[in-house]
Amino acid sequence: ALALATLTACSGGNPAAGGGAPGGAAGGAGAPPPPAVGVLTVAPHTVALQTELPGRVEPQRVAQVRARVTGIVQQRLFTEGAEVRAGQPLFRIDAAPYQAALESAQAQLARAQANLAQATATAERYKPLAEAKAISQQEYANAAAAQKTAEADVAAGRAALLSARINVGYAQVTAPISGRIGRALVTEGALVSAAEATPLALIQQVGTVYVNFTQSSAEVLKLRKALAAGQLRRAPASPGTEAVTVRVVLEDGTELPRPGKLLFSDLTVDASTGQVTLRAEVPNPDGLVLPGQYVRVRLSQAELPAAVLVPQQAVTRSAQGDTVLVVGEGNKPGPRPVTLAGSQNGQWVVTSGLQPGDKVIVDGFQKMMVPGAPVTPVPWQPGSAKPAAAAPAAAASVAAPASAASR
């Protein structure tokens, strides 16, 4: 009986030992599939070459409010920082001396007019007497000259009266243009002078502003040569205009909601910096930018007829050149040298090295343990950290029943 039990135990263990071969075969069938990587299928299209340049904001119109007569400031008639309109009173200067001068000019004019009336009457009375030779010609000539002198005195009196009225009007300082006024530069009781043209305030129009920025003369020359050779074409103008669209980037990285337009490019290169000055006109109805503020300007001066935009993480940059990994035959990745023409919005602009339909690997590099080993390309979705995560999950779900069956 003991021998029979021993033989039975040995024969029961053999199938378990022999079952290792099927189990091993099952293990070979459950090997991990090729790693899934996110790929971008290349499709060339028109790409605008954006240039970002530093600039400064300048008001569209600016006017300094200055004193045009000498006197004591009696009252400020505006609110600092408010909007003012052209012709609005801003300051009142003591006008008493100028009012007195005005009244004196009026009196002088009245005297001159009285003298003119007397001289005219004398000349008219002497004229027939001179014709009748009742008086000498010299007497009539003197009377006519006195009349002319009186007429000149009247003209001078009128001019003096007009000047006095102007000075009285200048005693009330008005806004030369409409816009936003800053702080008052003088206070009540201050003595202002017409000789020194004392500044009183500053008015600026900021509803529409200018942005002055500079570009390297070498970049301008390179751009013009590329346009002449047909490598690039001019960027389309703003709708309804012939000017290039300009975007203004604020200090916090946000853009103004309304785009501007490029007005002109200077014809002279700054000898000290080698820069060319450009100016753009930008709407600013909300007052988000202020004169003197530092901004950055984005503009598209030209565009590539057929180029490719590739995410920056897909490009490897080294001293030997720029390369990307492209999925080839048998889903095997291989390096491909490319030529870049700058970047925009986190993407490289590729001008050569890629063909339509090429699959560029963008994500999943960490899963490629063996160089040149096959991969499973999965469409890459922008903003997805793990675009190929679904494939490993599916593989795991398939492998789970096999392991359960083996158990």
Helix and strand arrangement:
Layout: H1 2-18, H2 20-29, E1 36-41, E2 45-66, E3 71-76, E4 83-84, E5 89-93, H3 96-131, H4 137-170, E6 172-174, E7 179-181, E8 191-192, E9 199-216, H5 217-229, E10 233-234, E11 245-249, E12 260-269, E13 275-283, E14 294-311, E15 316-318, E16 321-327, E17 333-344, E18 347-352, E19 359-363, E20 376-379, H6 390-406
Parallel strand pairs: 1-20
Antiparallel strand pairs: 1-19, 2-9, 2-14, 3-5, 3-8, 4-7, 5-6, 7-9, 9-13, 10-14, 11-12, 11-14, 12-13, 14-18, 15-16, 16-17, 16-19, 17-18
Helix pairs in contact: 3-4
Low-confidence stretches: 4-28, 385-407
- Taking the alpha carbons of the first and last residues, their distance comes to 33 Å
Helical content stands at: 25-40%
Number of helices: 6
Q: Structural class given helices, strands, pairing?
A: alpha+beta
Give the overall form: elongated
What's the overall average pLDDT, rounded?
82
Radius of gyration: 45 Å
Content of β-strand: 35-45%
N-to-C series of helices and strands: HHEEEEEHHEEEEHEEEEEEEEEEEH
Number of distinct beta strands? 20
- Quick one: biggest sheet? 6 strands, antiparallel, barrel
Verbal overview:
The chain has 407 residues and is α+β, with helices and mostly antiparallel strands. It is 31% helix and 36% strand. It has helices spanning 2-18, 20-29, 96-131, 137-170, 217-229, 390-406; strands spanning 36-41, 45-66, 71-76, 83-84, 89-93, 172-174, 179-181, 191-192, 199-216, 233-234, 245-249, 260-269, 275-283, 294-311, 316-318, 321-327, 333-344, 347-352, 359-363, 376-379. It is elongated, with a radius of gyration of 45 Å.
